[in-house]
Amino acid sequence: MLDVQANFNKIRQDIKQICDRIGRNPEEIRVVAVTKYVSIQRAKEAIEAGVIHLGENRDEGLSEKFQELGDAATWHFIGSLQTRKVKNIIDKVEYIHSLDRLSLAKEINKRAENPVKCFVQVNVSGEESKHGCKPEELETFIKELSLFTNIKVIGLMTMAPYTDNKDHIRQCFQLLKRCQKKVQALELSTAPCNELSMGMSNDYEIAIEEGATIIRIGTSLVGNENGGG
Ligand SMILES: *Cc1c(COP(=O)(O)O)cnc(C)c1O
């Protein structure tokens, strides 16, 4: 039987050990439980285990779980977001991790009633299949975003490639950290950019070592009910 509480305890213990080893404060790191592969019941177990932040990557999944669990959690939208879907999620989520283009920003800005905490997604691996702004276009994009009063760029987000090559994963996370420094150097009040959303089940240790403040964990926390676990 999958035990969400035991998994959460183990992840928190891991975070503490990694932080102790590298001299970071474990309280800087928040865990978002990614519930996209699991039932409402499993998501509920996560909340009962003490998880506060839940993440979904599709508007249907988010709406379904939000209807049942709503105020019991803080909701993060982590998937690629079609502009026409913004209206379905905007009143449910507190964080959007996948802001990657101006048309999307425009729609979020229009639909939101208050500033939304956004992460700009950056394609650090250069893979064609990955969403996200190119690193070399990031500063221009961030400056353009400063025109939208309902968008606050609290950080950057990325997904490392799916590979066993730990050096390559690390390089991707290091590049995101360098991108963050460039954005911070712009000193825009609309883009404090203090957060780094990076690290998933397979690579969160490396992500924490490289400065993650939010890790997004699905499989090793709540399991995957579509594919075993
Ligand atoms: C699915 C997903 C995750 C979690 O992946 P796991 O490997 O199951 O931990 C994290 N971030 C994003 C953007 C995802 O789509």
Strand and helix map with partners:
Layout: H1 4-22, E1 30-34, H2 40-48, E2 53-56, H3 59-69, E3 74-77, H4 86-89, E4 95-99, H5 102-111, E5 116-121, H6 138-145, E6 151-157, H7 166-185, E7 195-197, H8 204-209, E8 214-217, H9 219-222
Parallel strand pairs: 1-2, 1-8, 2-3, 3-4, 4-5, 5-6, 6-7
Pyridoxal-5'-phosphate binds at residues 34, 36, 57, 78-79, 159, 200-202, 216-219.
Structure description:
Strand 6 (151-157), helix 7 and strand 7 (195-197) form a beta-alpha-beta unit. Helices cover 40% and strands 17% of the residues. It has an eight-stranded parallel beta sheet. It has one domain: Alpha-Beta Barrel (TIM Barrel), CATH 3.20.20. With 229 residues, the chain is α/β, with parallel strands linked by helices. The site of pyridoxal-5'-phosphate (PLP) has 13 residues, from strand 8.
What is the first-to-last residue Cα distance? 8 Å
Q: What is CATH's topology name?
A: TIM Barrel
What is the global morphology? globular
Q: Measured on Cα atoms, how large is the radius of gyration?
A: 17 Å
Q: What's the CATH architecture? A: Alpha-Beta Barrel
* Biggest sheet features: 8 strands, parallel
Q: Specify the CATH class.
A: Alpha Beta
Order of helices and strands: HEHEHEHEHEHEHEHEH
